[in-house]
Amino acid sequence: MEPAIMGITGVPGFEALGKHIGIKRKRKDFAVISSTKPCTAAMTVTTNKARAAPLTVNLDHIKDGKAQAVIINSGVANACTGSKGLEDAYHTAALGASALGINAKDVLVLSTGRIGDFLPMEKISSGISTIKGELSSSKQAGTDAAEAIMTTDTKMKQAAVRVGKATIAGMAKGAGMIHPNMATMLAIIATDAKVPTGALQRCLTTAVESSFNMISVDNDTSTNDSVIVLANGLAGPVDISEFQEGLSYVCLELAKMIAADGEGATKLIETTVTGAASVDDARKAAKAVISSPLVKSAAFGNDPNWGRIVAAAGYSGCKMRPEKVSVTIQGTTVVRDGMSARFNPNHVSELMKSPKLIITVDLGIGKGTATAYGCDLTYEYVKINADYHT
Amino acid sequence: MEPAIMGITGVPGFEALGKHIGIKRKRKDFAVISSTKPCTAAMTVTTNKARAAPLTVNLDHIKDGKAQAVIINSGVANACTGSKGLEDAYHTAALGASALGINAKDVLVLSTGRIGDFLPMEKISSGISTIKGELSSSKQAGTDAAEAIMTTDTKMKQAAVRVGKATIAGMAKGAGMIHPNMATMLAIIATDAKVPTGALQRCLTTAVESSFNMISVDNDTSTNDSVIVLANGLAGPVDISEFQEGLSYVCLELAKMIAADGEGATKLIETTVTGAASVDDARKAAKAVISSPLVKSAAFGNDPNWGRIVAAAGYSGCKMRPEKVSVTIQGTTVVRDGMSARFNPNHVSELMKSPKLIITVDLGIGKGTATAYGCDLTYEYVKINADYHT
After folding, report:
1. Cβ atoms A269, A181 nearer than 8 A
2. Among A293, A361, A377, B31, which is disulfide-ready with B72 (CB 3.0 to 4.6 Å)?
């Protein structure tokens, strides 16, 4: 496995486009990812009961384990839109299929943005009509697509890796309403590896568990979370454990980019829990720490307030014996045997003034390990979300 | 049942004091509540695994269902303090017992404040030595005690009710690290009703379930949450269902005061969920709505962003069929059949400019109902918690 720098069009056989079709005022709001060849496909979606309409369409279309194109709009989430919303989502897929000359069942649709509004179908329809001629395998086309799916994101999110003869490249978006549960915000991953559907789904589920499912910006699980992987097979078969390693890498890189670009965030918080009774316990504890508003506020203020870290692990639901707990912040031990270690708070506070804050928690009772990724809670987060609507 | 305005010393046979003993720089930091007669006692405590030392002492001391005095300090939580912390808590109870001339087993101890620091035992010891002569049944003494347990609270929290010949009065504190789970921040409730221990514990558990366990300020479950009720029996027996009603009232009033006084809060958010498949489902959904950082930010910005309300219910774990959901904000229907209802957003935004924001969610599939209480997320919350330490 070798990390690579490229967009989704860096994968042979994949084309893309990103453009403005008038859903947002000025910024790009519409993207297409398309493979020249049919693909095996896998997907994970949100557990939110108020699942958005496009996800219902995708669950239907991906049943045969195949797909060839993904059509994405930003600005409107097409969630909480009832039967009309579902009709609009199916119609979008049909329009895309007709424009691309493929079967509607091979088109997946994604929406992200404001909940409750209907898709502006005239704009969508007009935007779709010309895509066949606009799709391109150029680097710019991949960048345009990654840009078009952004909402409150401040940075594009792309990651890629080479696995044997094959390439895996992905793009993602997400900055708020991020607390993925069995799935995440939008991420689309393309590969030219030849991977059968069953294996592809297993690899994706494994990769998502320790990447997108281990990040949180604000504890709010979205209605639209989706990760889609398309494999067009052009590079032929690859070693499946190498493929897993590569896919996990791409998912983790994208997930970390989402956490670091959390709404209003000034830094990424990376928390590794070791010594847990199980991996599941380690995950619970790590997620509780990076999700705690008190830990997140302390991170913003560069305050080595370890009591909040131990308290978060304590309510996470993991097995814990306080007297066994050790904590480090930026490499400095601040808690030993569940009690304050001797450390210089001003020194640790200085170390915390970094775009990456690393916290480790050793529960000292088992072998379970996990890492979770979050961001600090800032004035800007409140500002962005108090001002969103009006 | 008749609501009453009084502090904890309004209950016959109860004395109190609140004073400064030097744990904090200037503000009162030490309180005692004491009954002239032995009491039956009941308690609920935090589920946080990093439970503070005083709670371990109380679980030991309350085993016989009896207690007579509660000694409380603010400023230091005596949590994550190992065996020394436990020793200090036992020692505090022993010192109190000796000063009051009662059995150490009849003294409960509570601490609230910063996690990780040891109790300043010299100050505690010196402060305790004179309490016998300082205890008073005056109204001022009750007020002093309610004031002395405050940390980041901006308001004292007292509530009382008359039940037949008896009185129930309580005081509480809490503003941050508030997401009680089977218990809550500090609350001490006194009554002169004669209630056997078993019934007292059952009444308390019932009352806590729909009061302290239904509030959240920041999703962070504290290490020190405790609710204690002392019944000295001076008024004789009372109808137990009337007592339950009165105790539930006092708990709910105190819980609402904690939610409204959440760190940095400008308003109380009250969310009632109806039509849930069960009461448990209604509780999950109501708590998810008032806990959502996105809903809380929208409340601060007076933004009728109902999508965030539906999304929070959707990920709460309750049974939900989106097409059955209705939502009102300040009495205006904003969602009908899971979709946007016709409403004037500017008008609803105006209505939201109130110290109390009322949201209702009708899930439309059953008869379960519950109400949860939270507060908005503001710049001030971030400021308070980014600045706490340094």
Report:
1. no
2. B31
Would you state the structure tokens that stand for residue A318, as one six-digit string? 């993991």
Residues 64-103 on B with a CB inside 8 Å of A are 77, 79-83, 85
* B contact residues 166-205, partner A, Cβ 8 Å cutoff: 176-177, 179, 181
Range list of β-strands (E), chain B: 2-4, 14-19, 30-45, 66-76, 107-114, 157-163, 166-172, 186-194, 226-237, 268-276, 326-329, 332-336, 339-340, 356-362, 368-375
Question: What is the three-class DSSP state of B220?
Answer: coil
Instruction: Tell me the nearest-neighbour CA distance from A101 into chain B, angstroms.
Output: 34
Q: Which residue has the tokens 């300090």?
A: B73
Tens-place pLDDT, residues A244-282: 999 999 999 998 998 998 889 999 999 999 999 999 999
Task: Read off the pTM.
Answer: 0.84
Sort B367 into a burial class: Cβ within 10 Å, 0-12 / 13-18 / 19+: exposed
- Closest to B322 (Cβ–Cβ): which among A50, A303, A323? A50
Cβ-Cβ contacts under 8 Å for A161 (sequence gap 6 or more): A1, A2, A3, A4, A167, A168, A169, A246, A249, A250
3-class DSSP state of B267: coil
B377 to A382: CB separation less than 8 angstroms, yes or no: yes
Partner B contacted by A387 (CB < 8 A): yes
Beta bridge partners of B236: B193
- pLDDT > 70 fraction of chain B, expressed in percent and rounded: 98
Rounded to the nearest angstrom, the minimum Cα separation between A207 and chain B is: 22
Q: Is B334 on the interface with A (CB under 8 A)?
A: no
Rounded to whole angstroms, the Cα distance separating A103 from B58 reads 69
CA distance B220 to A269: 17
A87 Cβ neighbours under 8 A, 6+ residues apart: none
Active site residue B184: yes
Distance, in Å, from the CA atom of A366 to the CA atom of A285, rounded to the nearest integer, reads 13
- Reported in sequence order, the residue ranges of B131-219 that DSSP labels E, i.e. its strands, are 157-163, 166-172, 186-194
pLDDT tens, residue by residue, A61-110: 999 999 999 999 999 999 989 999 999 999 999 999 999 999 999 999 99
Which chain A residue has the Cα nearest residue B113? A307
In this predicted complex, what is the ipTM? Answer: 0.82
Average pLDDT estimate for B278-303: 94
